[in-house]
Amino acid sequence: QALTNGVYNCDDLKEFGKKNGWCPYFVARHAITMADVVVYNYQYMLDPKVAGLISQEMNENSVVIFDEGHNIDNICIEALSVDLDINKLNKAQACITKLNNRVNELRSQDVDRIR
Fold this sequence. Notes:
By secondary structure, the chain is mostly helical. The chain contains six helices and two strands, in the order ααβααβαα. Strands 1-2 form a two-stranded parallel sheet. The longest helix has 29 residues, at about 85-115. The chain is elongated, with a radius of gyration of 25 Å. The model has no long low-confidence stretch (mean pLDDT about 85).
């Protein structure tokens, strides 16, 4: 039996999956591909691992409504933040110095080749 047009929540999709002998997770993923409106937690859209699996399967004209969307600004800020300490900064400086030395070495080799 195919999933008919309608409004479904997680419990509905679980029930449909059990009734038809299908995994509810895959029923939900299939339903997302046909949905006009999807309501789900913003973390599913923002987490690259999850978004790569699920969000790409959505119809490009789907409307996404974020549950708990009032927290999204804090989550985005946190996701783009980096914790730095002196050890990380020292290691980064050492890598930059090493890279700079290698670039200068290659430049001098190129100058020698051109002459």
